[in-house]
């Protein structure tokens, strides 16, 4: 789906001109560590695009006075058009389009007074997305979230044209990941090592969880002593 909807039309102007309906924005959702950000980076690399990071962590403390938020979004859109193909990346996008909460008396609770509230970019993103991303531009917005429940479904559907789910890896992928990560740390797997069992019992692990586990176990000291203490399960 990423190849068909993002990489092909964004990376090739010929392909882009032959697509009748241009998908302008995507949201990648799924558990943490399933590769959402990694795929965004792959899209940037494969299409030779310029990436503009408008994630809440990256914009915190910046452009938070008056209409500065709209000014920033306008500058990003203008520059993205000039240097297209471009990808505008928004990590933790559920913080930009949060689910509206109500108080005890039915009044909506808001954090609008907070100058660093990520929602300050919401109106500007909706406005300038419509104005700058059209059939003649190769600009794509990609948002990532591991907490879609914390977002406003109505605003998500209005802003993002398509959603792509990133699931936990299946058995075959987990088995390949364990082997690959262990070998990348110069770990040695004996022929009788129960790799299949390891892949079975780690159902529900993300790629990031598997990598962190290998990083924690296969320290430099542990690798040096593999001859005396071979890997076991």
Query: How many domains, as an integer?
Result: 2
What letter string, H or E per element, gives the SSE order?
HHEHEHHEEEHEHEHHHH
Query: Helicity range of the residues?
Result: 40-55%
User: Into which percentage range does the β-strand content fall?
Assistant: 5-15%
CATH class of the largest domain: Alpha Beta
SS class? alpha/beta
Number of strand segments = 7
What is the radius of gyration computed over CA atoms, rounded to a whole number of angstroms? Answer: 22 Å
Describe the structure.
This protein is an alpha/beta fold. It folds into 2 domains: 2-165, 3-Layer(aba) Sandwich (Rossmann fold), CATH 3.40.50.300; 171-224, no CATH class. The chain contains 11 helices and 7 strands. It has helices spanning 2-11, 13-17, 36-47, 56-59, 68-82, 122-132, 153-159, 171-184, 195-201, 207-217, 220-224; strands at 25-29, 50-53, 86-91, 101-102, 108-109, 139-145, 162-165. The strands form 2 sheets. Strands 2-3-6-1-7 form a 5-stranded parallel β-sheet, sandwiched between helices. A two-stranded antiparallel ribbon has the order 4-5. A hairpin with a 5-residue loop joins strand 4 and strand 5 (108-109). Helix 1 packs parallel to helix 3 and helix 5 (68-82) packs parallel to helix 6 (122-132). The longest helix has 15 residues, at 68-82.
